[in-house]
Amino acid sequence: MNIKQQFKEGLITQNPVTVQLLGMCSTMAITTTLFNGIGMGLSVLVILTLSNIIISMLRKIIPDKVRIACFIVVIAGFVTIVDLALKAYLPDLSSSLGLFIPLIVVNCIILARAEGFCYKNGVAASAIDGIAQGLGYTIILVIMCVVREFLGNGTFGGGILNGGDGIRILPEGIPALGMILPVGGFLTLACVIAAMQYFLNRPKKNAEKREEVSK
């Protein structure tokens, strides 16, 4: 188990959003305020980590033919716990995220990690994988929330700071309201993915240039 490598993959080289392109629906739909991004990201992180642990513990006794159904049952249990906890302690966040919390049951990120990693690895490695992938997802959500909220509403920290209204940075009337609409989600996500791909491919291009020069 290489903890450093797992975190590097979860945060950068195999980031679930910008590299694996998973969980696109929730990524674009709820990233309008910082409160939504942090809430959704941490919810997925908790569910992903706990599901990874349980699935890894049960991997040797789960029949191969029904493994997907078993994965969904385990994930659904933790989603229900998180959903009820949010309704009880953070009703505003629960209302804002709406159906996207229950839909975590079929979130591609969680199912992909269950099938591709936890079903083949031990408990400790699966727990680290859940934390790393969950953090990678959360960071991208937060970045998108900050950009979209600033450009679309002119504020920062919506739902958290200044009584939930956020700190106003741009005067009203200046922000591009389209950024908090679905089209803004597509544009922001495209820019984030492009930036990540440029960052990942730059060393390869530099190496190719050095080889050409050496020849």
Task: Explain what this protein looks like in three dimensions.
It is found in: Cell membrane; Endomembrane system. This is Ion-translocating oxidoreductase complex subunit E. Part of a membrane-bound complex that couples electron transfer with translocation of ions across the membrane. Keywords: Cell membrane, Electron transport, Membrane, Translocase, Transmembrane, Transmembrane helix, Transport. The complex is composed of six subunits: RnfA, RnfB, RnfC, RnfD, RnfE and RnfG. The chain has 215 residues and is an all-alpha fold. 67% of the residues lie in helices and 2% in strands. It has eight helices and two strands; from the N terminus they run H-H-H-H-H-H-H-E-E-H. The protein has helices spanning 3-13, 24-29, 34-58, 67-89, 91-97, 108-116, 123-153, 182-214; strands spanning 155-156, 167-168. The chain has a two-stranded antiparallel sheet. Helix 1 (3-13) packs parallel to helix 7, helix 3 runs antiparallel to helix 7 and helix 4 packs across helix 5. The chain is flat.
Summary keywords:
8 helices; 67% helix; transmembrane helix; mainly alpha; 215 residues
